[in-house]
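dude i think i finally got it to work??
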Amino acid sequence: MPTTTSAMTVASAGERFTRRSLELADPAPDEVLVRIEAVGMCHADLAVRAGEFPFPLPGVAGHEGAGIVEQVGSGVTSVKPGDRVMLTFDSCGHCEGCVSGLPSQCVEFLPRNFTNGARPDGSPSLHDGDEVVHGNFFGQSSFATHALARVRNTVLVPPVAADVPSAVLAPLGCGIQTGAGAVLNVLQPGAASTVAVFGAGVVGLSAVMAAALLPIGQLIVVDVLDSRLELARELGATAVVNSRTADPVEAIRDLTGGGAGHVVESSGVTAVLVQAITSLRGGGTAAAVGVPPFGVTAPIDVADVVNNSKRVIGVVEGQSNPPTFLPVLATLTATGQLPVERLVTTFPLGEVERAAQAMKDGTATKPVLLPQENG
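look at this
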């Protein structure tokens, strides 16, 4: 029979999160019911609330869940009740991208993670009485005490990470894998190369932590908050630039003797993306991971890109294959090589608005909500 879940819902664009008791459907054959112990807050969740992303409302956001499996569908064999799991983005499993180990390039990525607001077959998973409440955000809608996920976006926590709190594991499902994957899976900078990261939020700092694992020559971080730049230094940056007081393009050129070989742009601000591309040396590569509202364009100098053989790559979810990459990230976290705990500030689920404000004003780098706590 349906499970009662206490969820933070958004009634319509621009409205505040409101707690509602909802009925969550029983798992379909390929689904997993998870009791959520922790769920990270990401820019995408706030973009849903603002109406900037094409997720139908009223609905439940949340897409960095971690918790305990309570029930599985009849076709699920890879996880069982009692298992600790991390939740991530959904994918179809049968398109070219999925079968090639690149589920972030799934042809159904948008409907499965953003636009359907329902299961892949169109059936709803959340109800408030007779009212349908849209769910399935990133295949989970985990701003709640319980969530339904598909087995494809449910990843076992490896034994080595058994003692890592769920509040630290939860962000691996999106923000951490996005930044770390941009470096480790896409840019793959060689020895003595230069990496510049624009934006020192959780995605940018995840890129910093990943780059710091490699034998690169320079690691430069650009942001507007001195507190985040200081944290970037502590996490491995060799130089920082406050773009409120210095031109980041000129600063990077001066520091590197001509430009960075690899750039991660994580802010989602189009003017910053232009700066990131401009700061590349000839032959350099920019990984664009920050996402502005849909339909926003950037004035790229095409002659600069072409004449200097620059590459600009859009990177979704760190070009990750979650069943293999998330356990790697969890292992690096458990062994202290990826200090994700330095980024995390926890809040009870009911204080989601306070968490959102803390992320906005920079007092919390990665807010993580704890659904099982009062608040």
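Residues 175-187 form the longest helix (13 residues).
im so relieved honestly
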